[in-house]
TrEMBL record:
FMN hydroxy acid dehydrogenase domain location: 1-272
Membrane-spanning residues: none
Organism ancestry: Eukaryota, Metazoa, Porifera, Demospongiae, Heteroscleromorpha
CDD domains: alpha_hydroxyacid_oxid_FMN (cd02809)
PANTHER family (UniProt xref): 2-HYDROXYACID OXIDASE 2, S -2-HYDROXY-ACID OXIDASE-RELATED
Any one cellular-component term (Gene Ontology): peroxisome
Name of the featured protein: (S)-2-hydroxy-acid oxidase
This protein's UniProt keywords: Oxidoreductase
InterPro entries cross-referenced by the UniProt entry: Aldolase_TIM, Alpha-hydoxy_acid_DH_FMN, FMN-dep_DH, FMN_HAD, FMN_hydac_DH_AS
Name of one Pfam family that matches: FMN_dh
EC nos: 1.1.3.15
Signal sequence, start to end: none
Catalytic activity: 2-hydroxyoctanoate + O2 = 2-oxooctanoate + H2O2; a (2S)-2-hydroxycarboxylate + O2 = a 2-oxocarboxylate + H2O2
Enzyme class: oxidoreductase
């Protein structure tokens, strides 16, 4: 297939809409409920202006930044997005190679359709990768993910704390979202990902209800701190008091995020 030349994000989005099936497009594009925050996430950028200095030497530009003791080539990283093989057979492998080539940070979702080990291989031994962790009701599932991430050279755990339940996404509900049979959540056994295959509603919503710990509080973060020496970043923090609380719990970073407006509608735009 000839590759179309897409030159900006909007064109990639348009192309994706035209080639993905309903199930995949609905999953990738939906925000929570009325999608007020989804729209606001984009519109918010228009409320900020850039005031550039002139007559500054830009013949050599170094955009590198330090991040938890490492250096990446630009202050833009890749956030975790689940189930990338819904869009392309190379899925997470392609993203891992691209992140390495661009010298930036890859964060791999717990719910990837390529397993931790395979992604690490494609990201390369000198690359900078973090692992996004959901905390499971079954501690053994969580511990297994942590140990594999450690073993495969992931340099931090990004613990998503805005998903005690999955956000209500009308698109997924309407489409009865499910993972096609040829794909699976590759970090888990058949038993632990089987509920995603068929469903009467959104399969992912049921999966979260069944397996993810909705009772997770700060004690659970202390437990996680006690089982790993990797830095911990909390993803989904939107309030200063939660950020201060994180510091008390020996957390190395926060990722200010509204989860792409997919969890709670009417929260502030992330950039705000
Ligand atoms: C299709 C899709 C899947 C996502 N999957 C995950 C995931 O598995 N884990 C997670 O923590 N965040 C997930 N996210 C949220 C993103 O990591 C990220 O937070 C969001 O796209 C950008 O919003 P932000 O700037 O508010 O962070 C997903 C987002 C999208 C669009």
């Amino acid at each position: 297939m000839a590759t179309k030349s897409l030159i900006c994000l909007e064109e990639y989005e348009e192309e994706a809409r035209s080639i993905l099936d309903r199930n995949a497009w609905g999953y990738y594009s939906s925000g929570a409920t009325t999608e007020y925050t989804l729209r606001d996430n984009v519109q918010a950028y228009n409320r900020y202006s850039i005031f550039p200095r002139v007559l500054v030497d830009v013949s050599l530009i170094d955009m590198s930044v330090r991040l938890l003791g490492d250096t990446i080539d630009m202050p833009i990283g890749i956030s975790p997005t689940a189930m990338q093989c819904l869009a392309h057979p190379d899925g997470e492998k392609a993203t891992a190679r691209a992140a390495a080539r661009m010298g930036t940070c890859l964060t791999l979702s717990s719910w990837s359709t390529t397993n931790i080990e395979e992604v690490a291989k494609h990201n390369g031994s000198h690359s900078f990768r973090w692992f996004q962790l959901y905390v499971y009701k079954d501690n053994n599932l969580t511990i297994d993910l942590v140990r594999r991430a450690e073993r495969e050279g992931f340099k931090a755990l990004v613990v998503t704390v805005d998903t005690p339940e999955l956000g209500l996404r009308y698109g997924d509900k309407r489409n009865k979202f499910s993972l096609p049979r040829h794909l699976k959540l590759a970090n888990f056994s058949e038993r632990d990902s089987s509920s995603l295959a068929s469903s009467g509603g959104s399969a992912l919503q049921e999966y979260v209800k069944k397996l993810i710990d909705p009772s997770l509080v700060w004690d659970g973060i202390d437990w996680l701190r006690s089982i790993t020496r990797l830095p911990i970043v909390l993803k989904g923090v939107l309030r200063a008091d939660d950020a201060r609380e994180a510091m008390k719990h020996d957390i190395q970073g926060i990722l200010v995020s509204n989860h792409g407006a997919r969890q709670l509608d009417t929260v502030p735009a992330t950039v705000d």
